[in-house]
Amino acid sequence: MKVSALRKFLQKKTKYNLPMRARLISGCLLVLSVSASSFSSISALGFSTDCLARTERLVRQEALQGGFAKGITPQEMKDIAAELSVPEMPIQPLPGKSFEQVLINASYRNSFWEKIGVVIRDIAGGHLLNDGNHRMAFTVAKRLIERNGIVRSPSNSDEQIYRVISKVARGAPGYRTADEIAEKLRGY
Fold this sequence. Notes:
It is built from 8 helices and 3 strands; from the N terminus they run αβββααααααα. By secondary structure, it is mainly α.
């Protein structure tokens, strides 16, 4: 059964029409019911509980790296924050915010630039940290661009990325959603 047909079948059988993704991972067909904040359920269809546990670990690991081909971990983001900090005032997420949630939010997007847009929006636009939001968003974005071998252009030069981050942090019109941010950085 194709994934799209499976998705339609499952939506007919469920009471609520949640957004879903279906994937084949490690030989297990998974159906991911996705809510706005996290994976609300992960089910393996017709496979053992061992298969479910193994694939759940893989899916969560992928989400906690933002879904990038070559991602970044929450611990790396904490290390970047420590590098940007001064001893008198360590940079850390504000209460109720986390690096993990930024990466999970990015994992819901499909393209590289949309994922970067989410990271910038959540860090700079969402004022994730007590200090250094611009520097943190810039450092993480630059590291992900380099790590994934993205070809640089004038629309995503260091200067342009920092300008976009500044506009996102101010809440400028046209710089509020991940799609708008991705469009500015991608150049189209």
